[in-house]
Amino acid sequence: MSEGSTLLTSEREVLTWSAFGVGIRELAGMVVDSSFEPDIVLGIARGGLIPAGAIAYAIDCKNLFTVNVEFYTGVNERLDVPIMLPPVLNAGDLDEARVLIVDDVADTGRTLELVHDFCAGHVAEARTAVIYAKPHSVISCDYAWRHTERWINFPWSSEPPLRRRIGLTDS
């Protein structure tokens, strides 16, 4: 397997840390090559936090915000609709900014859609970037490193937690 490749199984795509490093640089390169210069990188917690931070470094954007959204509760298990969790970002902090919304994957796309809609009416421009996009996503991402139909194992979430927090869902 080459440095930037991912492992494919019949049911899953496994992203290694090494492939993540290559992929995030290529994804950030897509943003730079498009001449889009975001004022803010907005990472969707939790899956989008590591990609957002890495992209922010790669494109030299020091304003990194986060928004907490819960949708997935397990493998292919999700709530009826994604919900923002507190503390909710003050949308006024985004006024007239160019924002790059980052997540790990656009699976259904509903999480990205929720955050994109949240930004609407405040930002000068919002674009979306993901490591993986799936064909059935309701939002077409501006930037995607790979396209897949498989479930993805990300290196930051493939291992179970060291301790389960009582009363919280898997997300």
From TrEMBL:
A matching Pfam family: Pribosyltran
Gene Ontology MF terms in the entry: glycosyltransferase activity
Coiled coil: none
UniProt keyword Oxidoreductase present: no
InterPro entries documented for this protein: PRTase-like, PRTase_dom
Segments forming domain Phosphoribosyltransferase: 13-157
Keyword Lipoprotein: no
Keywords from the named record: Glycosyltransferase, Transferase
Protein name, as recorded: Phosphoribosyltransferase
Organism encoding this protein: Microlunatus ginsengisoli
